[in-house]
Amino acid sequence: MDFLHFGSKEKRQGSSGRSTPKDKGSPRIGPSQPAKIEIQMESPPCVFYGGPNCSGALLSGQLKVVVTDLEVRLTSIRMHLKGHTVTKKPVAKDCPDCIDKITTLKSWNFITEPTTYAHGTHDLPFSYLLPGHLPATTHSILANIDYSLEAEAVTIPADTIKHKHPLRVQRALQPTPEKQSVRIFPPTNMTVNVIHTQIVHPIGSFLVQFRMNGVVTKEKSAQTRWRIRKLDWRIDEHTENISPACTKHAHKVGGEGKGQRHEDSRTIGSDCVKKGWKTDFDSPGGGQIELEFPASIRANANPVCDVESATGLIATHLLIIEIIVAEEHAKNTNTKQAVPTGAARVLRTQFKLIVTERGGMGISWDEEQPPMYEDVPASPPGYIRMSDYVGDDLGPPPEEELEAMEREERE
């Protein structure tokens, strides 16, 4: 009976009109705004074609004010182009001023006095030439560089309508001729000649031509030569960043205008080559070994393009090649029977790479514009003296002249 009585009591409590935790979490619908702001871009993607001295990228679009009520009265409509530099290792961990540095690059003030907008969509055009020296959008391990368009409208009751549009800025460098580099490895006579492209892209591979000379040292009755056992290559990404301190925490780094330097290195592509080279010990110049192999950045590496920002963020890349060679001894009378000596060397060399976005079919904005007035060539020479014809009507030419003209055309 006690068990039954307890069950009925629990049932009565469950059927009571008390609110449950689920009822407490019901969403609340806030008041709707009389208008909203949208940003529609009209210009192509913002790409800097060239280095920091390029002409920049043209930015244009429409700021749309969409009025949902019958009408709305706005006191101001402003928009700002801002650059955000977010430091992932700030001087003070919980200080927003040490983490995020905001720079306003351009501001637009679309209205200077209160204006009434009727129901519908109202377009406000804007344009700006992004300077070419700005760093591209970068997301690295140490810091991020982002750009955004932030619009704000204020209504008569002092309500604020905001909208933020992220903006991606890229940089594309034009391909350059292949670079040829020579490395010497004393005390041996070996030299390495490497031909590769210096401009590479996050997606895709590039060829590296490798040639080693001076691998044979001949004596009177015998010769000593070096044979490749394997070749390792890798692409390293090195990132540096200076974390600035705000005014409040400047004492931690020795005063205002100073910061903390952070560095990070990681491998974004690598491989081991164990075959595929051609060895010729009888070629003039001490023999040679030739090899050609493809190199690329790993697909899931999320590389950072080369950048050098005034805020202190620097990203560079290196192609590092390591060759393991083993020494062997052979008699000049029978060079095919070589005996390993047990000696080996590791030859290491590195080459600078520039990782950049692909330019595609796009060209710089200044190459698309019409020629300026001073660039227009000289016009045809003018006549010294001109006068109107005064006299009888000449009329159509005679039939004989027409027939002669037709015969000349046929001939």
Key attributes of the depicted protein:
7-stranded antiparallel β-sheet, 411 residues, mainly beta, 8% helix
Quick recap:
This protein has helices spanning 2-14, 21-24, 96-99, 399-410; strands at 35-41, 46-49, 57-87, 100-109, 115-130, 138-139, 143-155, 160-167, 169-172, 179-184, 191-196, 199-200, 205-213, 216-218, 222-244, 259-273, 278-280, 288-296, 307-308, 314-331, 334-355. The protein is mainly β and 411 residues long.
Question: Secondary-structure map with pairings?
Answer:
Elements: H1 2-14, H2 21-24, E1 35-41, E2 46-49, E3 57-87, H3 96-99, E4 100-109, E5 115-130, E6 138-139, E7 143-155, E8 160-167, E9 169-172, E10 179-184, E11 191-196, E12 199-200, E13 205-213, E14 216-218, E15 222-244, E16 259-273, E17 278-280, E18 288-296, E19 307-308, E20 314-331, E21 334-355, H4 399-410
Parallel strand pairs: 2-9, 12-21
Antiparallel strand pairs: 1-3, 3-4, 3-5, 3-7, 6-7, 7-8, 10-11, 11-13, 13-18, 14-15, 15-16, 15-20, 17-18, 19-20, 20-21
Description:
The protein has 4 helices and 21 strands. It has helices spanning 2-14, 21-24, 96-99, 399-410, and strands spanning 35-41, 46-49, 57-87, 100-109, 115-130, 138-139, 143-155, 160-167, 169-172, 179-184, 191-196, 199-200, 205-213, 216-218, 222-244, 259-273, 278-280, 288-296, 307-308, 314-331, 334-355. Strand 6 (138-139) and strand 7 (143-155) form a beta hairpin. The protein is flat and about 105 Å long.
